[in-house]
Design goal:
By secondary structure, this protein is of the alpha/beta class. The protein is globular, with a radius of gyration of 26 Å. The protein has a seven-stranded mixed beta sheet with strand order 1-7-6-5-4-2-3, with helices on both faces. Strand 8 and strand 9 form a beta hairpin. 36% of the residues lie in helices and 11% in strands. It has 15 helices and twelve strands. Helix 3 packs antiparallel against helix 11. The chain folds into three domains: 49 residues, no CATH class; 255 residues, Aspartate Aminotransferase, domain 2 (3-Layer(aba) Sandwich); 125 residues, Aspartate Aminotransferase, domain 1. The longest helix is centred in the C-terminal third of the chain and has 37 residues.
Length: 478
C-alpha cells in the first residue's frame, strides 16, 4: 500500500534550480581517477529545493514518529521507559565521547568501567562482571559459553539446557548458538516452572543447567525460585538468570540470593539508556567466583599500582566484543545509577510493580486476564471473549488511532492472542489512566462498531498492511 507521505526526492525535481550557494572556487579532483568505476553511482535525482523546504520536510516527518519522549510506550518485555537527558549530556562530554580505547590517558574511563562493574555486582550479588556484551542476547551467548567452558575444564560432558516456555525468545537461540540442545519446560497453571518436570528433566546427567527469565514473560515471579535453583544444583547444573526483566527486582531481591550463578543485565532497559531501532545496547554478565576465570578477556583489576587491564589465565572464553563494549551506553547507565543511588533504584522497582498492577486491576474488568495474580513489571491480557471476533491485531491497530503506541502482541506464544503490557515506572497515574480510558473505549467499540477496529488504523499516513504478504514477499528496496 502506498503511503501518503511525499518523499523529498519527489519535491522540486523539475523546478528551476533554487540552490543559491555559490560554486566552490577550488579545483575538485576527478572522482573517476580516485574511485573505481564499478563503485561510481549514476546521477541521482537530488531535489532542487531551498533549505527551508528541506528543514520543514524532515521536521514534519519527525512529528509523525513516536517515542518515549512523546507518549506512553507500553511495549511489554522491552522496558521502553523515559531516559533522563542528563545521561546524554554526560556521555557526550569530550572526555568520554572523543577518546580512543587505546589512549594512555584513559584512567578516568577505566575507573568508570571498574566502578560500574562493582555497582552491578552489588545490585545482583555477583562477584565479577564483564561489560563486553553488546546486547542482552549477546550476554546470553557469552554466559552460556562460560557455562560450557566451565564443564569442559572439569572434563564433564554437558550437552543440554533447560529453557521454560515462559522465557525470553532469545534464550533457546542463544543456547543453540553455544552448542547446546534445548529441553523446553511447559509452564503450570500458575505460569511457573513445574518442579516435578524440572526434577525429571535433570535426571539424565547431561544437562548443563537452566536459563530462567525472572520475572518471566508473563510478568510473574516464580514463587519456587529457590527450589528451582536447588534442584539444578543438586543435579550438577548451573543456573542462568535472564535479567532483562530486572526493573521490578531493583533493590528488592538479587539473583545471587535466589541461587543463580550467571546473570545478564540490559543497561539499555533497566538502567535508562535509549534503545530501539537496532541499538546500541549493552548486556553485561555477572558470575560467581567459580566462573570468573572464564569471563571474556581482558579484565580490569585493582592493584597497588592502580587499575590495570589483565589478560586471562588461559581459561577465558576470549574476547567477544572490541575493547570494553558499547562505552557510551555504559556511561549513561553509570550516570543513572549515581543519580538515583540505592534508595532511588529501590523506588524504581517499587513503582514498576505498582504501575503494572494498577493497570492490570483496571483492565481486567473488561479484558481477559489468563493469570489472575499479582504481577511484577508487566502482565498479559488476551483477545479471548472479545465481541465480534475482534483480534489482538485489531485492538493494537485501533490503539494507534488514539495516538498511543501499541503493546507487544502475540507474545508470549503460550498465550493465545496475547497483549503484553509494561507501563514502566516512569509513567504517571494520569498517563496510565488515559491508557485505560482508551482501552475501555476500544472494548466498547468492539461490541458496538467492530468495523472501526477491523479497518484500523484510520488516522495514520499508512493504513493497515497485509501482514502475510509483508512477511512472505518483503520489498526491501524501492
Amino acid at each position: 500500500m502506498k503511503s501518503n507521505i511525499t518523499l523529498i526526492f519527489e519535491k522540486g525535481i523539475d523546478e528551476e534550480l533554487q540552490n543559491y550557494i555559490p560554486e566552490m572556487d577550488i579545483e575538485v579532483a576527478d572522482l573517476k581517477e580516485i574511485i573505481p568505476q564499478i563503485l561510481l553511482r549514476n546521477d541521482i535525482p537530488i531535489p532542487n529545493v531551498p533549505e527551508i523546504v528541506i528543514v520543514r520536510h524532515f521536521v514534519k516527518l519527525s512529528h509523525k514518529n513516536y517515542g518515549v519522549d512523546t507518549g506512553i510506550y507500553p511495549l511489554g518485555s522491552c522496558t521502553m521507559k523515559y531516559n533522563p537527558k542528563i545521561n546524554e549530556s554526560i556521555e557526550r562530554l569530550p572526555g568520554f565521547s572523543q577518546i580512543h580505547p587505546l589512549q594512555e590517558e584513559n584512567q578516568g574511563s577505566i575507573k568508570l568501567l571498574y566502578n560500574i562493574s562493582k555497582f552491578l555486582g552489588e545490585i545482583t550479588g555477583m562477584d565479577r562482571f564483564t561489560l563486553q556484551p553488546a546486547a542482552g542476547a549477546h550476554g546470553e551467548l557469552a554466559g552460556l559459553l562460560i557455562m560450557k567452558k566451565y564443564f569442559e575444564h572439569k572434563g564433564i560432558k554437558k550437552e543440554k539446557i533447560i529453557v521454560p516456555d515462559s522465557a525470553h525468545g532469545t534464550n533457546p537461540a542463544s543456547a543453540k548458538m553455544a552448542g547446546f540442545s534445548i529441553i523446553e519446560l511447559k509452564s503450570n497453571e500458575q505460569g511457573e516452572v513445574p518442579l516435578d518436570h524440572l526434577e525429571y528433566a535433570m535426571q539424565g546427567g547431561d544437562v548443563a543447567g537452566i536459563m530462567l527469565t525472572n520475572p518471566n514473560t508473563l510478568g510473574i515471579f516464580d514463587r519456587h525460585i529457590k527450589e528451582i535453583t536447588q534442584i539444578v544444583h543438586n543435579n550438577g547444573g548451573l543456573c542462568y538468570y535472564d535479567g532483562a526483566n530486572l526493573n521490578p527486582m531493583l533493590g528488592i531481591c538479587r539473583p545471587r540470593d535466589m541461587g543463580f550463578d550467571i546473570v545478564h543485565l540490559n543497561l539499555h532497559k533497566t538502567f535508562a539508556t535509549p534503545h530501539g531501532g537496532g541499538g546500541p545496547g549493552s548486556g553485561p554478565i555477572g558470575v560467581i567466583n567459580d566462573l570468573s576465570p572464564f569471563l571474556p578477556e581482558p579484565c580490569i583489576i585493582s592493584t597497588e599500582n592502580g587499575l590495570v587491564c589483565k589478560e586471562s589465565t588461559g581459561k577465558s572464553i576470549g574476547r567477544i566484543k572490541s575493547f570494553w563494549g558499547n562505552f557510551g551506553v555504559i556511561v549513561r547507565a553509570y550516570a543513572y545509577i549515581l543519580a538515583l543511588g540505592a534508595e532511588g533504584l529501590l523506588r524504581v522497582g517499587q513503582i514498576a510493580v505498582l504501575n503494572a498492577n494498577y493497570l492490570r486491576v483496571l483492565l481486567q474488568k473488561k479484558y481477559y486476564l489468563p493469570f489472575n495474580r499479582a504481577c511484577q513489571h508487566e502482565f498479559v491480557i488476551s483477545d479471548k471473549n472479545m465481541a465480534n471476533n475482534i483480534t489482538t491485531e485489531d485492538i493494537a491497530k485501533r490503539i494507534l488511532d488514539y495516538g498511543i503506541y501499541a503493546p507487544t502482541i502475540y507474545f508470549p506464544l503460550i498465550i493465545q492472542g496475547a497483549l503484553m503490557i509494561e507501563p514502566t515506572e516512569t509513567e504517571s497515574k494520569e498517563s496510565l489512566d488515559y491508557f485505560v480510558e482508551i482501552m475501555n473505549k476500544i472494548y466498547e467499540e468492539a461490541k458496538e462498531n467492530p468495523h472501526l477496529l477491523k479497518n484500523a488504523p484510520h488516522n495514520l499516513p499508512v493504513k493497515r498492511l497485509d501482514a502475510v504478504i509483508a512477511a512472505r514477499k518483503p520489498v526491501l528496496h524501492d
